[in-house]
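Hi P.,

Sorry for the delay on this. The queue was packed all week, but I finally got your sequence through. Input first:
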Amino acid sequence: MDTRTMSGDSYAVERDWSEAERRAYERYAAQSYVRVVDVPSGDTVGEIVDISAGGFKLAARRKFRRDDVYAFRIDVCVEGNGREPITALARNVWSAASSVDNLHAGFVFISLSALSRARLQQFIDELSG
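Then the structure:
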């Protein structure tokens, strides 16, 4: 089920997903280093573990507050080749410690421009190839 709505040239992902809808998008493991940057600060906040059209799992370098919205830039790299970055607003939906000094966090996309949506789909297509 596609729970996106379109406004102008941007997509907004609905916040009220059920468990079934949340898993409606197939997830793909990042096969190389994919850095995520907090846009306002310019700080690297982690690396993508897996990604889908609906959101991503992050190996995080810091804690995130549930339900807070963040402006991220995802620096895509496939087989050592950089791609144009994906920019998005994403909401934190969960965080958990995965080891003593490593955190994981889950995010859903809540806003992507049409260009970033196309870049995300290209990245997913390359991962699923």
